[in-house]
Design goal:
The chain contains 5 helices and 9 strands, in the order βββααβαβαββββα. Helices cover 28% and strands 27% of the residues.
Length: 161
Amino acid sequence: MEPPAPVALLKEGDLAPAFSLPGAGGETVALAALAGKKVVLYFYPKDDTSGCTKEAIEFNALRDKFAKAKTVVIGMSPDSSKSHDKFREKYQLALPLAADETKETLASYGVWVEKSMYGRKYMGVERSTFLIDETGRIAKIWRKVKVPGHAEEVLAAAAAL
């Protein structure tokens, strides 16, 4: 069963939808646990595909700089936590990766969308990033992300927040 479509797309200034999901390494990834911290929540389509791997590696490489900006980076996809475990191990990723197999959180953020490839329509994740401030409000949204240079751009926005 597909999750319901979002009623309206989230905007900057909106309260970020709460979530608590299984993560890689048996951890639970919950927005409420990060209250008082800035959070970069990046949504990606699939573990171990070229664009998603590049994006994860770029965010992972900037982990220390995000930490200095008092910002936690979380990746989320509809893959299972077991898939996330393999993905993290293969590329030595230390970022939390949340598994939204029900796609409810993906839908609540408006990133579970109809896509089209070679004339075939299907549902999938629109590569997007949300910068959430310390109060839980969305400070900045990037939709239809192009990977090269994106992590650096998000870091600059997080540092300026």
